Amino acid sequence: MARLLGTLRSSQPVARFQRSCGLFPAGEEGGGSSNDPADGSRDRGACNGAAALRCRAPPGGVRSGRGPQDCTQKYIVKNYFYYYLFRFSAALGEEIFYITFLPFTYWNIDHSVSRRMIIVWSIVMYIGQVSKDILKWPRPLSPPVVKLEMRTNAEYGMPSTHAMAATAISFSFFTATMNQYKYPFELGLVAAFVFSTLVCLSRLYTGMHTVLDVIGGALISAVLLVLLYPAWDTIEHLLLTSPFCPLFSIVVPLVLCYNYPKLDYYSPTRGDTTTILGAAAGATVGFWLNNQYNQTAPVYASESFQLGFPLITTKVVVVLARFFVGILVVLLTRWLMKNAVLGALGYQYKFPIRDLEARRRLEVEVPYKFITYSSVGFTATVIVPLLHKLLGLE
Q: Which residues contact 233 (CB under 8 A, 6 or more apart)?
């Protein structure tokens, strides 16, 4: 067992998977060494051999050797089908996709489904992000692995939060809708499995995680879903009716963010976690408020959403209108709150708004991101539906 776990944790299986999908480091046998774009090469800098010593250290200090390295290398793509498939799949695991998809379900499908996915997403992502910074397992080594991403390489590896989020979102959507809407059970199960599998495999293809990271992330999400499923009705009832819900939804995430595990260098994990918990906190307060003052909140999909409807109908146009109006308002809220909060914090702590190092400090990053994204979550669940009603987009 120890030997198997060691193999799954090593970089070699990731490198072999990349080679089998047509992704090679420049200069490796079978990949060629040409930098001619016509030969399918992608120039992203160098990080191999002696050049590895020049990899960029994290902001705020010298690399201690224990943290992950920010570096990429020249690589050659021999199979563009896999390249674009897995780059697209990797994008489906990013926060921006879920911050777009989750409001879409709230505006256009079902409030209950959206509530479940948002709560599950925030719980899963917090556990995953904290686990990374407690375990401090490194990402795959480069070489032999080709690394296609820069930003996430500054984080530790175990578990893969992309795998966790994809598994949690796809299967919570499936379990929340399988008894409410008319579609084949097998089709929903296969769709959830394919979605989560593509995102998991994309983390190997991009060189960001070992096989054990991905398996661990998927299993953690699966266990959490099994534990939460029988308790969901109770959780939802408390979220919608308890008078303590707004206070609990704000205070608990804030305490978790301020007490996030400390690292010896800056990592985006704390900021990303604060973004997720802030958005979920604002949305949860919105859920509670809607239930207090709008007991008969519309559920669009219960009457109109079925598989097989024509691509262009009046209902589809309304769905798209709701989405684009909602996203526009959400983006405007984000822009306004980001500038207002950063301006206030900059005045209080005496730093210019564009000072990136100052914005990474605990006393700035947590309130800045939490207030901004909790405002976004509240806007998406309260303000946008009211605007839809005023515009006749119900």
A: none
Segments forming the whole domain that contains residue 166 = 87-390
Q: Is the dihedral of CA 369, 371, 374, 376 positive or negative?
A: negative
| 57 part of a folded domain | no
Confidence of residue 29 (pLDDT cuts 50, 70, 90): low
Q: If you ran DSSP here, which 8-state letter would residue 21 be given? A: T
Inter-residue contact 394 to 298 (CB < 8 Å): yes
Cα pseudo-dihedral 303, 305, 306, 311, rounded to 10 = 130
**21 belongs to a structural domain:** no
Give the C-alpha separation, 68 to 220, whole Å. 22
d(CA 100, CA 110): 15
From the CA atom positions of the chain, what is the Rg in Å? 22
Catalytic residue among 111, 209, 237, 388: 209
Selected catalytic residue, list 111, 162, 237, 388: 162
Q: Answer whether the bond into residue 385 is a cis peptide, omega within 30°.
A: no
Whether residue 56 has pLDDT greater than 50: no
346 belongs to a structural domain: yes
Active site residue 209: yes
Residue 50 lies in a domain: no
What phi and psi, each to the nearest 5 degrees, are found at residue 24?
-130, 150
Q: Select from 168, 156, 319 the least CA-distant residue to 229.
A: 168
Confidence of residue 57 (pLDDT cuts 50, 70, 90): very low
Instruction: Provide the residue type at 259 as one letter.
Output: N
Query: What total of structural domains would you count in the chain?
Result: 1
For the question of residue 388 being annotated catalytic, the response is: no
